[in-house]
Specification:
734 residues; alpha+beta; 6-stranded antiparallel β-sheet; binds zinc ion
Length: 734
């Protein structure tokens, strides 16, 4: 404490604090936590708003509250307290009545005759320490507390009103302030807003206004209000993107909701320039630049410390600049993996893959398939204090505490590959690389994944097997990929049926379901639901979205297949045999469970023809030596076979009546089909290799897989023709 006391007196001499945190601000700047110009900016704002400096610094995004508290505790050698956990002594409250607590932003924790332990929002405010100390005639020992925790304690112990609570914890500015930081809560009547904006601008001269007027126009109250409303409405409507598009004769706003664009409003053409300028100002773009595309960001405050980021892109088109704003609402980011749409079983498997000590996990799907969300969720599961996580993203969409995120900027040479190289020198456990697009990135990613790092990345491919094919196409050798790969996850987003108007569709063409991949044995009980359309879902019958997933684990068989660089179709078969559910299978299960509609499942996933059942994919292979019996005349077993290698003799009544020598020829199917004992004996001549298929599946195979049925029939016909020839030859000889 001696050290702290020393610091205390030196600060006390140099600065007098009026209670808004001047000392704290100077301390942060002096110790290099914020720059001098950042402090200056905060102080300028403080002159107008009289807020606490720490609040302004937090709002400007220069430091978060946890960092400020940790800094204070370290710098002043004082403890951080959590008042409610600390079980304060309520009898002390009579010494510090509410108006005093509020004035100094303090809370009495514990005390004896001499010492009072005081929770303080700003322990650098020595005037407070002195004032409280002299009033209570005790030595005050400060602890630092967070704003929310202090407000919570006030609510609990001093029983303050909700408005008072809100006032303490709000991060938004308290004055009228610059319009873009305005605390906006409600959406006004849209129609009148639009016409107000149009009137205001037309007074200024409509389309012909020059540069300076445009800025004036952009700052117009009506335009400001309209733009705010367009942004707010997207949030309240649950949209993901806003499109503001100029056409020759119209100017329209469309919102993308659950992946579908809806027209939201028509704007008057004459506000085009003012509106674009206003958005450029908010997104800190160059308003004079009209010929080139620009990118920016808008931070919109929604009261109570909730902020929503928009990533804004402006693109010059034939009829003016088109604006797209994407909502990056942190509160909307669903990083709870159990809510993404994984089945329990698949989630368990995925969790196991995540926690492997090293390896590569790829998440794939087209743009807008939710793969970023899944990746963030996965990485967030691994986000623990002892794990160092580095990400390279293009661009960083959401910030996570405890994760080092890097924005890739190819224009200055910071590519995914160069970021990855730098990462390896930073000794991380987990690396997320936004996308693998080239050999360079792929090679380093694989190197990292096989040298003790868990590496996550994405690709733009359709499903798991094609992801492997893409990596091999890039130029990676099969053995390199197979040794590093842990698993691939492909996904799509399906619209969810509105739970308020859901009903079961009874009349369904069962054959169509079979054609679309529902297994024959379950098709009779397969359920289909949809939404009627109601107020809750705005008449669409859908509300929200859910993921459909295909997960390919790098099992031994899958690894072997990747090493030998088998075809995509072959890899798919092997993966399915090893338990992979295809996207279509998963989507159909979500249909049956009433989560999504048949239309969504059929529209967003494809039926993979190679999705054969395991018994057809990888039947047992048997090796026979010369003279070995494969089928015995008179037996009643029902299996059927396919010759892979070698020669077989067909023997009837002790005489060889034919042979089977054509590779891939089927035999033994007659008994399964006719349900009769074997009519001939079949023996191996020399060494042969034969596949065995279960006979009880033959009917189903012929019905379900016409290609295979044709091959079986062809084998049968060839054999019968040959036997026929042989018999007639024998007849001639006799
Ligand atoms: Zn509904």
């Amino acid at each position: 404490m001696a050290q702290a006391a020393e610091k205390k007196s030196s600060f006390k001499k140099s600065v007098q604090d009026s209670g808004t945190g001047e000392v704290l601000g100077k301390m942060l700047s002096k110790e290099g936590q914020i720059t001098r110009s950042q402090l200056k900016e905060a102080e300028e704002i403080q002159k107008k708003t009289k807020e606490r400096i720490s609040k302004i610094i937090r709002r400007l995004g220069y430091m978060d509250e946890d960092s400020i508290i940790a800094f204070l505790a370290r710098q002043m050698s004082i403890p951080v307290t959590n008042i409610t956990d600390d079980k304060p002594d309520p009898s002390l409250m009579k010494f510090i009545p509410w108006d005093m607590a509020k004035e100094y932003m303090v809370f009495p924790l514990r005390g004896d005759a001499k010492i009072l332990r005081l929770a303080m929002l700003d322990p650098t405010n020595f005037n407070t320490i002195e004032a409280v100390g002299s009033r209570l005639k005790k030595t005050v020992k400060p602890s630092v507390v967070s704003e929310k925790n202090l407000a919570d304690a006030y609510l609990k112990y001093y029983k303050i009103k909700q408005e008072e609570y809100d006032e303490i914890v709000r991060l938004a500015p308290v004055d009228d302030g610059p319009a873009e930081e305005e605390d906006i809560k409600t959406v006004d009547d849209l129609g009148s807003l639009i016409s107000d904006a149009a009137e205001d601008v037309s007074i200024e001269g409509g389309e012909e206004i020059d540069e300076s007027d445009q800025v004036g126009g952009a700052a117009d109250a009506a335009i400001v209000k309209l733009v705010n409303t367009i942004l707010i409405k997207s949030v309240t409507d649950g949209a993901s993107d806003i499109h503001i598009e100029p056409f020759e004769k119209s100017y329209q706003v469309r919102y993308r909701k659950d992946g579908v664009l809806h027209k939201a409003m028509n704007l008057p053409l004459n506000i085009k320039l003012a509106l674009v300028s206003r958005i450029k100002i908010m997104a800190m773009m160059n308003i004079a630049e009209k010929r080139r595309p620009q990118d920016g960001r808008i931070k919109l405050r929604l009261g109570k410390g909730r902020a929503i980021d928009f990533r804004v892109s402006v693109l010059p088109t034939l009829f003016g600049e088109s604006i797209v704003a994407r909502l990056l609402d942190q509160s909307k980011l669903q990083i709870d993996m159990t809510k993404l749409g994984f089945s329990r079983k698949m989630l368990d498997r995925f969790m196991e893959l995540l926690h492997k000590p090293q390896g590569l996990i790829l998440v794939t799907g087209p743009t807008g398939s939710g793969k970023t969300n899944t990746l963030y969720s996965a990485v967030n599961i691994l986000n623990e204090p002892h794990v160092k996580i580095l990400t390279a993203e293009d661009p960083v969409e959401f910030n996570f505490a405890g994760i080092n995120q890097v924005n890739v900027r190819p224009e200055v040479g910071l590519t995914f590959a160069s970021a990855l190289k730098a990462f390896l020198r930073q000794d991380p456990e987990v690396i997320l690389i936004g996308e693998i697009r080239d050999l360079d990135t792929a090679e380093i990613a694989l190197k990292a994944a096989s040298t003790g790092h868990m590496v996550f990345s994405t690709l733009h491919t359709n499903d798991c097997p094609s992801t492997v094919a893409r990596i091999l196409d890039i130029g990676i050798q099969g053995y390199m990929l197979s040794s590093a790969l842990v698993g691939v996850l492909a996904q799509r987003l399906l619209r969810k049926i509105c739970q308020d108007c859901k009903y079961e569709v009874k009349k369904i063409d069962r054959q169509m379901l079979v054609d679309e991949g529902v297994p024959k044995e379950t098709v009779e009980n397969f359920k289909v639901f949809q939404g009627k359309g109601c107020v809750v879902c705005g008449g669409s019958g859908y509300k929200g979205r859910v993921g459909a997933f295909e997960m390919m684990e790098a099992t031994t068989a899958v690894r072997d297949a990747i090493t030998s660089q088998v075809s995509e179709g072959q890899l798919r078969k092997i993966a399915i045999k090893d338990g992979m559910m295809t996207l279509r299978m998963d989507a159909m299960e979500k249909v049956h469970n009433g989560i999504t509609t048949l239309n969504e499942a059929l529209g967003k996933t494809v039926l993979v023809k190679e999705a054969l059942p395991a018994y057809l994919l990888n039947p047992d292979e048997l090796v026979f030596d010369d003279g070995d019996l494969i089928i015995k005349e008179g037996n009643t077993d029902r299996n059927f076979y396919q010759l892979l290698q070698g020669h077989l003799a067909i023997i009837k009544n002790g005489r060889i009546v034919g042979e089977i020598s054509q590779p891939f020829e089927y035999f033994g199917e007659m008994s399964s089909l006719m349900d009769q004992p074997r009519t001939a004996t079949i023996k191996s001549r020399g060494k042969s290799v034969v596949k065995v298929f279960p006979g009880d599946k033959l009917r189903q195979t012929i019905e379900d897989y016409p290609d295979i049925a044709m091959k079986i029939i062809r084998s049968l016909v060839i054999r019968l023709t040959e036997a026929d020839k042989k018999i007639s030859q024998m007849g001639q000889k006799q």
